């Protein structure tokens, strides 16, 4: 691939961040802007499991979901040549953080107020199904250092449109 000295397939950029930071939404906008494919490990996991994420959590539990997420992350990092969005909890696994070393990783940062507004009652996000505000605060406090560890750049998303955020990420990617 262009930009990779030994010709491996790798994402142009990997998006990480809290649920509600806009990884999926900004990722789609950014991929269209750059004219490249968009991949989201959550969609890959649903395809792998043959069911939506909330059903995976109910039927097999979070540990099984995290195992699928590690497999989906490893596969996407070597097969996606476009924009790759990870799930908000992917950084919890040391294996995933190690796999991100050497990649262009943008942390879409969001404060609690905007994240809560965006995820609402957590539809489709089983971890946020009960008490979304307190749960999100806890997740964000736990994960903030992990996003910082893997990120090569951070883009603030609060109070901004997906188009503005995608344009800033695109500008960061210019050589
Ligand atoms: N910058 C933004 N401003 C307002 N709403 C947003 C923004 N980014 C995403 N959203 C909305 O917030 C919700 C969660 O966005 P999503 O892209 O699924 O986030 P993530 O993948 O990081 O969890 C969606 O309803 C989306 O339309
Ligand atoms: O934060 C998490 O642990 C999760 C975030 C979700 O993705 P988004 O960050 O895209 O909402 C999804 O992977 C799953 O519900 C678990
Ligand atoms: Mg998402």
UniProtKB/TrEMBL annotation:
Residues involved in ATP binding: 20-25, 125, 160
Keywords, ordered alphabetically: Amino-acid biosynthesis, Aromatic amino acid biosynthesis, ATP-binding, Cytoplasm, Kinase, Magnesium, Metal-binding, Nucleotide-binding, Transferase
Keyword Cell membrane part of the UniProt annotation: no
Domain of life per record: Bacteria
GO cellular component terms, A-Z: cytosol
HAMAP family given in the database record: Shikimate_kinase (MF_00109)
Annotated PANTHER family: SHIKIMATE KINASE (PTHR21087), SHIKIMATE KINASE 1, CHLOROPLASTIC (PTHR21087:SF16)
Sample GO molecular function, one term: ATP binding
Chief location of this protein within or outside the cell: cytoplasm
Chemical reaction(s) catalysed: shikimate + ATP = 3-phosphoshikimate + ADP + H(+)
Family: Belongs to the shikimate kinase family.
SUPFAM superfamilies to which the protein is assigned, alphabetical: P-loop containing nucleoside triphosphate hydrolases
Descriptive protein name: Shikimate kinase
Biological pathway: Metabolic intermediate biosynthesis; chorismate biosynthesis; chorismate from D-erythrose 4-phosphate and phosphoenolpyruvate: step 5/7
Subcellular localization, as worded in the UniProt entry: Cytoplasm
Species the sequence originates in: Micromonospora haikouensis
Described purpose of this protein according to its UniProt entry: Catalyzes the specific phosphorylation of the 3-hydroxyl group of shikimic acid using ATP as a cosubstrate.
Bound cofactor: record note: Binds 1 Mg(2+) ion per subunit.
The keyword tRNA-binding is assigned to this record: no
Annotated gene: aroK
Positions annotated to bind Mg(2+): 24
Listed cofactors: Mg(2+)
Subunit structure: Monomer.
């Amino acid at each position: 691939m262009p930009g990779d000295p030994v010709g491996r397939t790798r994402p142009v950029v990997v998006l990480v961040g809290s649920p509600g930071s806009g990884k999926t939404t900004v990722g789609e906008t950014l991929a269209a802007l750059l004219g490249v494919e968009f991949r989201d490990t959550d969609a890959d996991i649903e395809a792998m499991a043959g069911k939506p994420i909330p059903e995976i959590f109910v039927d097999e539990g979070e540990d099984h979901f995290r195992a699928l997420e590690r497999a989906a992350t490893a596969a996407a990092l070597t097969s996606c040549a476009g924009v790759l969005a990870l799930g908000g909890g992917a950084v919890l696994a040391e294996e995933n953080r190690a796999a991100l070393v050497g990649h262009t990783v943008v942390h879409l940062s969001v404060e609690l107020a905007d994240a809560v507004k965006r995820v609402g009652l957590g539809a489709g996000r089983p971890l946020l199904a009960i008490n979304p505000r307190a749960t999100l605060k806890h997740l964000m406090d736990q994960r903030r250092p992990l996003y910082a560890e893997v990120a090569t750049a951070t883009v603030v998303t609060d109070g901004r449109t997906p188009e503005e955020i995608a344009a800033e990420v695109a500008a960061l990617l210019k050589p």
